[in-house]
Amino acid sequence: MAKRPDSKQATETLEEIESLFDRLADWVSANPRIVMGVLAGILGLAGVIGLSQSLSLRSEQKGSEDLSAIYADYLSAMGATPGALEVEEPANPEIGKRTRTEYAAKLLASADDHGGTRAAVGARIQAGVLQAENGELEAALASWREAADAAPSSSSLHGLALLRLASGLEQNDDFPGAAAAYAEAGDNPKFPARFLALASAARCWLEAGDEDQALVLYGKLEAADPPAGSVPEHVQTRLEELKMRSGEGAS
């Protein structure tokens, strides 16, 4: 049976590959020291990577342990039970303020000690929360910015840091800045609260007086097809009204 032209080309290509491997085998036989050196280098590199990963894991674990210990001490100092989700203000407000100031500083110091870890990001987020509760909004914004910058890109932790930053900017009446931070969090597919973030971005553009940007963000939210209940009803209603007004204006 005659071979098709493409079959002939395939055979020639296979022969060229086999010839290349033959020449390579001859070169390896003639240069064993070079080959062994290359293999040793590869194995050495693998060992360095493995050691680096091991050290990174240990550093992460140590950072998490330090963060947990500091926060447990904070709860104790505030008279709260271990693992409490809400911390009541002490009878003497000054004690509460001093305690938050002290432990915000400890959290930031821990973040510096464990830079490059997720635990450090978590420490900065929590420090910002304590600073905000003390009325130190600018300091809190700085902590949350550093947390967002240091968090692994497109991680849930990055989204959480951006959400904190956005809420602080909104509290500071910086609605365009808040909208940008919310939108960045909303673009993160791994962030569980991404639909809420997109809706908040659209709402902040409304607060800033930019209805066009609000409509763009609302369009992105609708295209993402959020599940029922993921966007607050009052925000949904406000954005729907904007969409209807825009449609009527265009008509």
Which descriptors would you attach to this protein?
251 residues, mainly alpha, elongated, disordered N terminus
User: Which parts are unreliable, with pLDDT below 50 for 5 consecutive residues or more?
Assistant: 1-18, 45-56
Overall mean confidence score, pLDDT: 80
What portion of residues belong to β-strands?
under 5%
What is the alpha-carbon Rg in Å? 28 Å
- SS class: mainly alpha
Instruction: Tell me the number of helical segments per DSSP (H or I, 4 or more residues long).
Output: 10
Distance between the termini: 71 Å
User: Would you report the number of β strands?
Assistant: 0
Helix content: over 70%
Shape: elongated
Q: Strand count, sense and closure of the main sheet? A: none
User: What string gives the helices and strands in order?
Assistant: HHHHHHHHHH
Explain the overall architecture.
It is built from ten helices and no strands. By secondary structure, it is an all-alpha fold. Helices cover 78% and strands 0% of the residues. It has helices at 5-30, 32-77, 93-113, 118-133, 137-150, 156-171, 175-186, 194-207, 211-223, 233-250.
